[in-house]
Amino acid sequence: MDLSVQLGNQSCPNWFTGLKGLPQNFDLIIVGAGISGCVFAEQASRRYNLKSLIIDKRKHIGGNCYDFINRHGIRISQYGVHLFHTKFSRVWKYVNNFSDWTPYEHRVKGNIKIGAGYRMVPIPPSQDTINVLFGADVSNEIEMEEWLNSRRVPAEQPKNGEESALARSGEELYNAIFKHYTKKQWNKWPKELDASVLARIPVRTNTDDRYFTDPFQALPKEGYTKIFENMVLEDPNITIRLCIDYFDVRGDLPESNLLVFTGPIDSYYSSLGLPKLEYRSLKFEEEYHEPEDGYYQNCLQLNYPGEEVDYTRVVEYKHKPNQPKDVHRRKGTVIFKEYSCDEGEPYYPVPNPENRSLYGKYKEMAARESKVCFVGRLASYKYFNMDQAFLNALEMFDEYFSRSSSFPTH
Ligand code: UDP
Predict the structure, then answer these.
(1) For a pocket test of ligand 1, which of 108, 181, 183, 187 has the largest count of ligand atoms closer than 8 A to its C-beta?
(2) Which domains are present in the chain?
(3) pLDDT of 178-219, one tens digit each?
(4) What is the DSSP letter of 84?
């Protein structure tokens, strides 16, 4: 195991000593060192001086936000591109405790196959998108509204992703941007998914080509991993042990007043034999290139919404402004082609009525637990963005500690 790569400049041998030598008692045992687990440990320590043990089966902290500098000197994200954006002042204030931030507004292009070639258009779709794709000639919001109105398929209360996208965009845009991308991403057609999934991508009548419109959009100056290090690393109340699978050590853990579980909720109850929840995973195909001008493509994220290729997007991290200083002078670049798949680490809950109803059963069991708290994207089975994961963890922490009598601090 090459720990130097995984840990960057940190060397923390204790992280890998298993459960040996640990105290017999912790206030919290936290399964998972991602956003939710680290928020709970940090808040428990700072607000109540409580001691936490965090375990994670991976060899790094930061969960799916984990990034590091690779052998070409480029900061990359191991689990796919992460962009922080939020409208929640509480979250923005909170994350500023752990990092300096560089303003960054994410812009995504879609590479759309037309005839023998490709055309690059803004995503979310806006005026330029339809002008380039369909030879429309709209130049203001009224004309764009008219163009869309003549194509939209009205649905008062869209029941699924297809109805919602057709109601907003009409058939041509739907086919070009949403339909096949969604099938590749979820292995389901939009009509098999909740309306909320495709509604993440608006259809704009103006020329705003930003992917997000939240008031706070930025990248951590030294990468996301540094945030987690600053949250939990130097705190004497927080003990971290990596490369430990909770299910291997369940019976051997020290005592605690609360277990915070941030893994997939169905894995916690797997012995009960209920059907498993669906999660979608990702695979990344890495390529190294030395293009003449140092860049493979002209943006960080280029989507491929068509069915002619199997990947959904190509990410070139060198475009991120929070790279080490000399990166832009280097000739080499790495790109990642992103494929979606069923097998592998769970990344995405799959929002549809079947999974929602099954999750409801797990949720009922979870509600009956007095000493276990289920927190985060996988445990709450919610398609959280990073900021929503921070907010959810902060609010769940408030909620739990405002009513719990299990802790001596109360
Ligand atoms: N989507 C699409 N075409 C695109 C981008 C997104 O159809 O070019 C749809 C697709 O269903 C996707 C969803 O919108 O799963 C949410 O996209 P987002 O970029 O928010 O996904 P994430 O970054 O979370 O993977």
Answers:
(1) 181
(2) 3-102+219-275+349-403 (3.40.50.720), 108-198 (no CATH)
(3) 999 999 999 999 999 999 999 999 999 999 999 999 999 999
(4) E
Query: For the segment 49-79, what is each residue's pLDDT rounded down to a tens digit?
Result: 999 999 999 999 999 999 999 999 999 999 9
| Distance from C-alpha of 56 to C-alpha of 261, rounded to nearest angstrom | 11
- How far does residue 176's CA lie from ligand 1's centre (Å)? 13
Residue nearest to atom 12 of ligand 1 (CA): 182
Would you say 67 and 8 are in contact if contact means Cβ atoms under 8 Å apart?
Answer: no
Query: What separation in Å is there between the alpha carbon of 408 and the centre of ligand 1?
Result: 45
Of all residues in the chain, the percent with pLDDT exceeding 70 is 96
What's this model's pTM, rounded to 2 decimal places? 0.96
Give the Å distance between the CA of 182 and the centre of ligand 1. Answer: 7
Say how far apart CA 274 and CA 254 lie, in whole Å: 28
In tens, the pLDDT along 110-132 reads: 999 999 999 999 999 999 999 99
Q: Does the beta carbon of 185 sit less than 6 angstroms from any atom of ligand 1?
A: yes
Burial of residue 164 (CB within 10 Å: 0-12, 13-18, 19+) is buried
Number of other residues whose CB lies within 10 A of the CB of residue 131: 16
CA 123 to centroid of ligand 1, rounded, Å: 10
**Which ipTM did the prediction report?**
0.99
